[in-house]
Amino acid sequence: AQTVTQSQPEMSVQEAETVTLSCTYDTSESDYYLFWYKQPPSRQMILVIRQEAYKQQNATENRFSVNFQKAAKSFSLKISDSQLGDAAMYFCAYKGETSGSRLTFGEGTQLTVNP
Amino acid sequence: KAGVTQTPRYLIKTRGQQVTLSCSPISGHRSVSWYQQTPGQGLQFLFEYFSETQRNKGNFPGRFSGRQFSNSRSEMNVSTLELGDSALYLCASRFLTGPTYEQYFGPGTRLTVT
């Protein structure tokens, strides 16, 4: 079974600075997707960024980028120029190519942004 | 384009009762998945429906069931509620064709069992 681990329950960052959230996963599948979702206090899950395992290039979405290390099964999220609106719970998630919509989530990292 | 909607948003039930939650997917989306979110267990996959059939199921007891209607709306039912069923229940929808990773979440239903 696939597992996703986020070892940082809480992180904090100063506004305008950079923070990196860690995620490791375990799978025997060769084709899969990895995601970072953001869940603000409203509880709405918002997709931040996606990485296809077959792509070697790290995904980037504006201030958000990932460091995908397939051999190490590591998938970290870097947030640059942190903003107050980035404060939220961040979840790392895994989806196998053949698992339909099923996502396996990590435990989450609560990010605080200090002004 | 309207997002995924879930009703009701909040619900309080008593142990032993049953509850039905509803999820209306984004127009054109035919797959609906359900997740349970609790502080202790985190986010766990319940099941996925498309074409009115359950296609994928997580590791939950038979008290948790669901169905999907011809208009793709989905309902989730929990019978004989237990205190541990108190959770945020999220649903997500996606197109059946195209990238299977593009799913969108609703705002959730907060269920409290007393």
Features:
heterodimer, A: about 120 residues, mainly beta, 6-stranded mixed beta sheet, 4-stranded antiparallel beta sheet, 12 strands, about 50% strand, globular, B: about 110 residues, 11 strands
Radius of gyration of chain B: 13 Å
Low-confidence stretches of chain A at least 5 residues in length (pLDDT < 50)? none
Mean pLDDT of chain B: 94
Query: Gap between N and C termini of chain A, in Å?
Result: 41 Å
Class inferred from helices and paired strands of chain A: mainly beta
Oligomer: heterodimer
Beta-sheet strand percentage of chain B? over 45%
Parts with pLDDT < 50 across at least 5 consecutive residues of chain B: none
Output the helix-strand order of chain B: EEEEEEEEEEE
Question: Sheet bearing the most strands of chain A, described?
Answer: 6 strands, mixed
Beta-strand level of the residues of chain A, as a percent range?
A: over 45%
Q: How many individual helices of chain A? A: 0
Number of helices of chain B: 0
Q: What does it look like?
A:
The complex is a heterodimer of chains A (115) and B (114). Chain A is mainly beta and 115 residues long. Chain A has strands at 3-5, 10-14, 19-21, 24-26, 32-39, 46-52, 60-61, 64-69, 74-79, 88-96, 104-105, 109-114. Chain A is built from no helices and 12 strands. With 114 residues, chain B is mainly β. In chain B, the strands form 2 sheets. In chain B, strands 2, 4, 5, 6, 9, 10 and 11 form a 7-stranded mixed sheet that branches. A 4-stranded antiparallel sheet of chain B has the order 1-3-8-7, with no helix packed on it. In chain B, a hairpin with a 2-residue loop joins strand 5 (42-50) and strand 6 (53-57). The model of chain B has no long low-confidence stretch (mean pLDDT 94). The chains are: A mainly beta (115), B mainly beta (114).
Question: What's the gist of this structure?
Answer:
Chain A is an all-beta fold and 115 residues long. Chain A is built from no helices and twelve strands. In chain A, 0% of the residues lie in helices and 52% in strands.
